[in-house]
User: What shape does this take?
Amino acid sequence: MTGTLVLAGTPIGDVADAPPRLARELEGADIVAAEDTRRLRRLTQSLGVRTAGRVVSYFEGNEAARTAELADALDAGSRVLLVTDAGMPSVSDPGYRLVAAAVERGARVTAVPGPSAVLTALALSGLPVDRFCFEGFLPRKPGERRTRLREAADERRTLVYFESPRRLPDTLREMAEAFGAERPAAVCRELTKTYEEVRRGPLAELADWAAEGVRGEITVVVAGAPAGGGENLDATELARRVAVREEAGERRKEAIAAVARQADVPKREVFDAVVAAKTAGGGG
Assistant: This one.
């Protein structure tokens, strides 16, 4: 009889948010796979529980190799509990490979629902939450990051990103360039912790604020693209958006078509705006 894999959500800040079932699972698991065994130790001490089973590390560096070991343990009937540093396993954290292996081997997979930075930030953002998509961390390389943002510029659903404090100013500035300076957004910092802060406003305004320096764990929520014709973009903004797409590697013809579609204006209007901008700037 195959075992059971349990994905356990852990607090993203306040340990009091831990669900009661988490303590029971920690005490009863045959194996506890933790992204950081030291953080696991602090968590169990805070909850006042002891792990009776074997504790192993399971992080990005050893995820591929350790998955096979844990899958074998499931084959042998073990109850394997997977916890990451904060939030739900598999959501920008280790876990996907193990879930896929468990499913392939016919093991039962269940979860202990818990805190989620994605859902918490969405709820606090003040932006529409009826439809959203989670984008995780953006690429570190500027060119790849701009390309990813360009691809999301027409997305109508609310967008959720994770970001590091160090890269936040650049990311917000590039979001303002790709999505428009006035696109509403919210930066959620240190959720559920002592210094929790939610800063709301247009992307350009948030980029200026972040330039002064921001600390803590960051989740960025950005409003989806407005329905066609909702922005009333002038020629300067139309040309700027084409330029952003071209800088990210898109051909001018495709960039003009995409901006025209997003703004719900004729392609000729966008083309004329680009020509006028080039003429004004002395470009060819």
Observations:
- The chain has a mean pLDDT of 92.
- Residues 267-281 form the longest helix (15 residues).
- The chain has eleven helices and ten strands.
